[in-house]
Amino acid sequence: MFFHKLELKDKIVLIGHVTLICMNLHNSYFAVSQKVQLCMQPDGTEQPKNDEYNYQTDSMSLVPLIRCDIQFEEYLLLKAICLCNPTVHGLSEHAQRIIAKERQRYANALLDYCLKNRNGGPNRYVELLGIIPVLIHQQRLQKDIHIFHISPFISNLPHIFQFLEDIMFA
């Protein structure tokens, strides 16, 4: 693994950027693996509910995973690729090199898996990588909802969840 090779500042920057993407992929995969087409948390609760204003944003990564019929191994490798994003603003050049090398390893492993286990391996590989822009767009929308709708309310609370704020403003 590469994380221990990063400086603390780079770790914080990377985590702040990839947390929502990885969480959305995790929650969507969990729902798909349970054969449900709704936003389901790993504890089995449905959140948000279908009638909540942010449901469409929070559920947008379900469709590509259902369409792809993503397998567990593919999910793990895709999540690792999402985690290893060397283009995150604020990373040092040293961190970018380490993360890019690691991302390439996971991308190669996913391609190899697709070639060995799927008909049309290259097409499958491209289809899986096509999920990443959906996750990035979903993250952007969630951050916008937080900044414009949620943050004004929680800023008046006595205890601000600083880590959540750091993620949403990253």
Automatic annotation (TrEMBL):
<protein>
    <submittedName>
        <fullName>NR LBD domain-containing protein</fullName>
    </submittedName>
</protein>
<feature type="domain" description="NR LBD">
    <location>
        <begin position="1"/>
        <end position="168"/>
    </location>
</feature>
<dbReference type="InterPro" id="IPR000536">
    <property type="entry name" value="Nucl_hrmn_rcpt_lig-bd"/>
</dbReference>
<dbReference type="InterPro" id="IPR035500">
    <property type="entry name" value="NHR-like_dom_sf"/>
</dbReference>
<keyword id="KW-0675">Receptor</keyword>
<keyword id="KW-0805">Transcription regulation</keyword>
<dbReference type="InterPro" id="IPR050274">
    <property type="entry name" value="Nuclear_hormone_rcpt_NR2"/>
</dbReference>
<keyword id="KW-0804">Transcription</keyword>
<dbReference type="Pfam" id="PF00104">
    <property type="entry name" value="Hormone_recep"/>
</dbReference>
